[in-house]
Amino acid sequence: METSKTIKKLATNIPGFDHISMGGLPAGRTTLISGSAGSAKTMFAAQFIIEGIQKGEHGVFVTFEESAQDIRNNLESLNWPVAKYEEEGKWIFVDASPGTTHQQMEMGDYDFNAIQARIKLAAKRINASRISLDSMGAVFNQFDNPNIVRRELFSLSRAVKSLGITAILTTERQDEYGAVGRFGVEEFVADNVIILRNILHQEKRRRTIEILKYRGTNHHKGEHPFTIIHDKGIVVIPLSSLELKQKSTDKRVTSGSKDLDNMCGGGFFRDSIILASGPTGTGKTLMATEFLAGGVEAGDKSLVFAFEESHEQLFRNARGWGIDFDRMEQDGKLKVVCMYPESAGLEDHLLNMKNVIEEFKPKRIAVDSLSALERVSSIKGFREFVIALTSFIKEKQIMGLFTATAPALMGGASITEAHISTITDSIILLRYVEINGEMRRGLTVLKMRGSKHEKNIREFIIDNTGMHLGKPFSGMSGIIAGNALHSDYKDSLNDIDEQMSSSL
Amino acid sequence: MDSYILKLFISGTSMRSRKAREYAEKLAEKRDDITLKVIDVLENPDPAEDYKVMATPTLIRTSPLPERRIIGDLKNADKVIEFLDI
Q1: pTM summary value
Q2: pLDDT in tens, A221-242
Q3: How far is A377 from chain B (nearest CA, A)?
Q4: Is A76 helix (H, G, I), strand (E, B) or coil?
Q5: Does this complex have an ipTM over 0.90?
Q6: Which of A117, A180, A477, B13 has the fewest other C-beta atoms within 10 Å?
């Protein structure tokens, strides 16, 4: 609810941040950014200034801990041209880092009027609209008397406030889920507080940003994951604030297999997410391959992210099924991206995939397999990843096929299924069926949102022309659960049972 | 005879600044070998930036090198001379 008293926000242009903050930082006000060591506070503070300069807003960077030269070098290594901006009068450093060339002693009372005067001068000199001070806590290391420092930092933050410029003050904290700040946040005029976390959970690092409070204005609550990308810096991934506003379509397209299309009431919906789940070797990659090939033949640009096979393996397998991936790739209709799941954190995989999708603009995407990614992340991180990816592709009206590996050979649900079955529109299960000493395969369409579909379990046949669906397994039960039994056999067992119990 | 150059950074006419100024000026008067320059950061902030001064009062012996600094209202005269080695 907007009132005339709602505080305006300044768009930071830090990717994802303006979304979770509903507009940016409170304009003309001071925001405290608190984080543990290595939580990217300095980067956030610097990026705030950089993004401003790219919008024509000049900024002051006051550094209390690292020297201006060190910061300049670090930022230049991210491809941010700080030295150029300094020459152009857009960025100015106030270097209040500990001096290395002199010995210092304290005697009596003192104040921080000198640094205040320097900051005011710098802001005026380049007509600054943004200012970052990094980090307040480091000042305690430069002086012997913490009481004086505390008093003077408070006075300094009031002075910064009075400049009327949008300001960031960074400060340290020790516990990821403990007190907001190490030195008592009250000192720093904490109207607006943001927390950066770098959490170690089950051997994985997870970076999150949380807007703890904004006085007088709204923001999304809770932690949001972010990652750091070369050239871009901090990129926030706004998950909890994703809205379910996808449009839906009635248009159907081919799954790549006519037999499967028939089982699905005519094909998949254009904007659906399909999960194909089954034990290893049941034909998921084949399904994905036909999905891609069928797409290309129907005029869809197709993209696959492969986390379990190499480019060569995929193409060789495809050839064995009569599908010419080479030609499709050369024609620019097919793109294949192969990666080790361990090669990056899930947030980085997500951003990389989004970039590839935005550049290649496919109409359909396959991910083979999601389970490979699930293995290298926490449960929470994985679920967030799936939600973020599926909502991204749904928003672009791209059809997605995800494969998942069920752990047991004979059936049972995979963990992936348990997590994402509610997000997917269609679920196809693949299973082994043991019949008369032979291992055969079965496929069934478990769910197909918004459409009639066959309830049968059909035999899934693989030959050198790809996948085919044969007759339904009749007279059998327990296939999907992994306990396939002939109904006849079951009846005979029941008979024997009855005979035995009646003879007792 | 060795000569020393001292720079005193103060801010306006606060008690701290006045005390430090009084003391430094008295010292410079007494000693021929000391040249004192007083800088009020409120009027002239640029030198504060050049010398990376954060607090006032700050008394710096800029020559001879290496530099030595004392921060505070310079309560203890003897200690000043001793630490600045002047």
Answers
A1: 0.72
A2: 888 888 888 778 898 887 654 5
A3: 46
A4: helix
A5: yes
A6: B13
